Amino acid sequence: MACWGEGTVKVYVTPIGLIVPLACLLVCSSNFQKQGWRIEPVDRDLIPEARRVLEYLKSVQGKKMLSGISGSQDAQPWAVLHMTGREPAIAGGDMAGWHRKGSPLYHQVLQRTVDRAIYWWRKKGGIVALQWHWMKPCNPEGRAWVDPPRGTGPLDLAKAITPGTEEHQALMEDLKVTADYLQQLAEARVPVLWRPLHEIDGGWFWWTDREKPENTAALWRLMFNYFVKERKLHNLIWVYNAAHVSHTRKPPAKTFEEEVAHRKRYYPGDEYVDIASIDTYPNPKLGWGNCQEDARKRAYELMQLIAPGKMLAIAEDAGLINPDVAQREGPAWLYCSAWWVGGKSNPVDWMRKTFNHEHYLTLDELPVLTGGNVMPNVRIVKPVDGASILDSKVSLSGFASDRNGNLRRVTLYAIRGAWRNWFLRDDKEVLEAFQESKRLGELKVRSDGSWDFIWDNVAPGIYNVVALAEDSEGLVACSNAVRVTVGLKNLALGAKATASSTSRWGEPPETAIDGDPYTMWWSDNDQPDPQWLMVDLGKECNVSAVTVLWWKAYAKDYTIEVSSDARSWHEVARVTGRNKYHGDMDMLRFKPVRARFVRLHCTKRAVTWQAYTVFEFGVWEHLPEH
Ligand SMILES: [Ca+2]
Ligand SMILES: [Ca+2]
């Protein structure tokens, strides 16, 4: 095939990229010029790196889908790694500074977004996507949203796109700041799937002109002309983005044709758009189900009519859409990006299924689009995160690879002690945590990338395990961290749990003792302290330790109490002034007692936005010191 395929990648990336990446870029570029680009981007001066991304996307369209993660809050690529073992092909970010415009914090947030994008492209070799929750010009408190409680009202778009007005001046000042940050990415030659004015026809952001959509389309062209022609930002792939629902037509559209005609008024024109996307959250009124059961075929038909001939993508959904349904029904989505990780919206089981499904492409399956050396990829498949292994032998297996073909070694490490919430920590923090002293051994990686390892004679305890892969140029990548207990029996597993309250947003008390480190009980934030979680072991047992794996909403102060009748309680451990941003596990040992009921009694909250959240509550007859 003349388009992007494995053969093409090998020709110009593998042999040269290892030695002189810059030379490789030149070779790659001339290689493509010889072949001729198959795609004409809307920016005719688009850098070769970005053209390569577009060419690659075109080559997979209709065959497979790229997986993505939004980058919002905790929905980061490392969260996907630790939950699924795989990393997304596309990692998102936002050009909103979130804090007061122009403040030091605002600039810190933007710089971090830029730095992460450079890291993701250059070191990880992944594709970068950015949207912009553009805070309304003309107002230092301005928000992207229009309506209360978050919103700060509309902007007169007709004025804003007209030079000489105060609104236009404020708008151009904002564009300049954003262009300055995007310029860092242009200079670092990082291609960006650039998705400005997102959910353009929804009606909840100020850039959506509800009365005259053509003004919004004009704003898009204004931004395009300023960024591309004036600022020479030639690294941007322009991604149009419709909302899952448009609330802006008066009267509301009665037919599909009316809806298409209305939504098309926001579209800036084919010469300003490379890829057209839509955000497709579940919506019973539209007949759209959860992503677990839907491939958004109707949204695909809608976008085909709004942007005929363009490659189409799902820029946001709660989770990745069902790949089996997608294969069966056939909408040729280029990529799908999940907005959340974990919880009810995108449960970890679903994430594991989708990110490991052959129809979805993950980071390790991308060609080397940068032209240079990128990090290896390594994952632990067995045991699963949270496994309870009763004997002293642990069988591990997984995969490791390097897309440059320069994998040097893979080493396994273990930290004995409290489980940490690794999905909240970036690669750097993981690498710093696993020191040489924690080395278990080097792995023999087979030619197909698989490896296995027997970790024998393990001292009873609680462990965090990770594999680190290093390539011949010294780039080191971590695997998903797997948390296990070895040689210990958790008395709470299979017991009965009750609680003082449960949030309607959370999961019931039994999820705190189900052995799954991603399901959790949430107490109800509207209920006053104290709040408690109680485990009934079914009969009196010897108990001398408990473990509590918290999410970010933990208890600053709490006690552990035991009882034989669930009426009179005896305190065995007390924690005060706990302070851990990431939550993580507490391990509390005390003088052995006989108890049938064990209670976590919480009296002081760490955060205001949620009460108490417990992934796992463990009860132990004996928890060895280390
Ligand atoms: Ca490499
Ligand atoms: Ca759980």
Q: Can you describe this structure?
A:
By secondary structure, the chain is α/β, with parallel strands linked by helices. The protein folds into four domains: 1-38, no CATH class; 64-365, Glycosidases (TIM Barrel), CATH 3.20.20.80; 378-486, Immunoglobulin-like (Sandwich); 496-620, Galactose-binding domain-like (Jelly Rolls, Sandwich). Helices cover 24% and strands 27% of the residues. The strands form four sheets. An eight-stranded parallel beta barrel has the order 1-2-3-4-5-6-7-8. Strand 16 (461-471) and strand 17 form a beta hairpin. The longest helix is centred in the N-terminal third of the chain and has 22 residues, at 166-187. It is globular. Bound molecules: calcium ion (2 copies). One calcium ion is lined by residues 373-374, 376, 402, 404, 406, 471, 475.
CATH architecture tag of the largest domain:
Alpha-Beta Barrel
CATH topology of the largest domain: TIM Barrel
What small-molecule ligands were found?
A: calcium ion
Task: State the separation between the terminal residues, measured CA to CA.
Answer: 58 Å
Q: SS-based structural class?
A: alpha/beta
Neighbour order of strands in the largest sheet:
1-2-3-4-5-6-7-8
Helix content: 10-25%
Beta-strand proportion: 25-35%
Number of strands: 25
Overall 3D form: globular
Query: For the report, how would you describe the main beta sheet?
Result: 8 strands, parallel, barrel
